[in-house]
């Protein structure tokens, strides 16, 4: 079965519809599926809900879909770098559901593993816990009871992720901290489309070094990535 | 009174050889400069253990950033992993300590450091997961805010990041522990009297 598509528009053909739920990989601007986001902008799909740790910056990442008002709701842990996001959120045009970062990652992982809910200590006693089921478990010292809240797994219509390399069967290798949310996002999508810097022949990746097996990957494109740096920090040579 | 670097230096004394540690943004980041000979591995919650210093100019890698989105470098010991595993090790108590900044801490160890109602809300990022999961939560912050009001309160007024999560507080005036009934003075900063510290603290000092 061929998983390789010529470009982002072709890879998304037939997968997009208004009001859909998309899980996206990336942390800040690192490891974001920039080509697929650009193709969603061109497709004009509206009322999108995104599960994504961040919302990009004004002119890159998910930010480009905010400019065109294609996003209805964001599920994120941190959105501080995007002025247009804040404007739309404060004016009520955009819904926002804050998730603690680890809860968001685990919601994606859990959804991808067929787990509809899990208990976590994160957020107990905060606004995050309001309206959620609480349950005590004997996880403390000497079996003392500790309180947890239930969080739901994420089951997205589509996952869009960025990897470094794929083989033709969709086995993926990520590079450094660009891995971040990409594997859990990939896992929680009903369909997963991946953009990579290089598609290599099947058999050329070491099977022991695959970060995400191709079973999670349905469509692959190769392309040129801008890979913008958000905060360039350097040190002086001694 | 301690300055930012002295607070970071004091915080570094809390870290024990062999620990895996997560440092927050701001003064906590400076703690890395003072670990000395101790074998400390820094975690960056976007998916890295063994965080190295900033790169030399021209060697920045867009695929290699820390949780503050700054370009960094790797070390020989570095390991990369995805965000679910990263917070798995945080939630699972594998990270010995987190050193974080704060807006408010109260005498029950409640911490507020992510949101001021009515002001721009950026999000909690990984702070709620860290304070809920790591072994020891050490707060490093100024003792008072810019209006001179105490940041060590009887009860936090801002939305919480975690309830009963703080173990130790290091401020420009000294070091305090969260204990039964309030805060306990562990150490005074250079040139600071106990009366001065008490006067700048709203929380109960036991």
UniProtKB/TrEMBL annotation, chain A:
TM region positions: 20-40
SMART domains in UniProt: CoA_trans
Keyword Disulfide bond set for record: no
Keywords of this entry: Membrane, Transferase, Transmembrane, Transmembrane helix
Organism the protein comes from: Thalassorhabdomicrobium marinisediminis
GO molecular function: succinyl-CoA:3-oxo-acid CoA-transferase activity
Keyword Protein biosynthesis recorded: no
Protein name: Succinyl-CoA--3-ketoacid-CoA transferase
Matches recorded under Pfam families: CoA_trans
């Amino acid at each position: 079965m061929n998983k390789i598509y010529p470009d982002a528009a072709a890879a998304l053909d037939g997968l997009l519809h208004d009001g859909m739920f998309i899980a996206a990989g990336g942390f800040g601007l690192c490891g974001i599926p920039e080509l697929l986001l650009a193709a969603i902008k061109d497709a004009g799909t509206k009322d999108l809900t995104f599960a994504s740790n961040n919302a990009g910056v004004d002119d890159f990442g998910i930010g480009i879909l905010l400019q065109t008002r294609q996003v209805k709701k964001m599920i994120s842990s941190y959105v501080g770098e995007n002025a247009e996001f804040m404007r739309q959120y404060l004016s009520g045009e955009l819904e926002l559901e804050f998730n603690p970062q680890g809860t968001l990652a685990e919601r994606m992982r859990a959804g991808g593993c067929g787990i509809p809910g899990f208990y976590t200590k994160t957020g107990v006693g905060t606004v995050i816990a309001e309206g959620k089921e609480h349950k005590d478990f004997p996880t403390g010292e000497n079996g003392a009871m500790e309180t947890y809240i239930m969080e739901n797994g994420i089951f997205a219509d589509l996952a869009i992720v960025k990897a470094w390399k794929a083989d033709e069967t969709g086995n993926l290798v990520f590079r450094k901290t660009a891995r971040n949310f990409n594997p859990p996002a990939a896992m929680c999508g009903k369909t997963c489309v991946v953009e990579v810097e290089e598609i290599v022949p099947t058999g050329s990746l070491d099977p022991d070094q695959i970060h995400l097996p191709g079973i999670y990957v349905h469509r692959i494109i190769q392309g040129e990535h801008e890979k913008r740096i958000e905060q360039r920090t350097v040190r002086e040579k001694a | 009174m301690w300055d930012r670097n002295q607070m970071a230096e004091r915080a570094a004394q809390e870290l024990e050889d062999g620990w895996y540690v997560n440092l927050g943004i701001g003064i906590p980041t400076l703690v890395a400069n003072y670990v000395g000979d101790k074998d400390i591995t820094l975690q960056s919650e976007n998916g890295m253990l063994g965080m190295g210093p900033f790169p030399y100019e021209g060697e920045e890698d867009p695929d290699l950033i820390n949780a503050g989105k700054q370009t960094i470098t790797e070390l020989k010991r570095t390991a990369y992993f995805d965000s679910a595993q990263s917070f798995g090790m945080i939630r699972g108590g594998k990270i010995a300590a987190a050193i974080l900044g704060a807006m408010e801490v109260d005498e029950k160890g409640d911490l507020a450091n992510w949101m001021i109602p009515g002001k721009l809300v950026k999000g909690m990022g990984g702070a709620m997961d860290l304070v809920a999961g790591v072994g020891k939560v050490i707060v490093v912050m100024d003792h008072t805010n810019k209006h001179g009001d105490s940041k060590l309160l009887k009860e936090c007024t801002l939305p919480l990041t975690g309830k009963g999560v703080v173990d130790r507080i290091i401020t420009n005036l000294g070091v305090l522990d969260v204990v039964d009934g309030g805060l306990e003075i562990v150490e005074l900063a250079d040139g600071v009297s106990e009366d001065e510290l008490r006067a700048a603290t709203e929380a109960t000092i036991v």
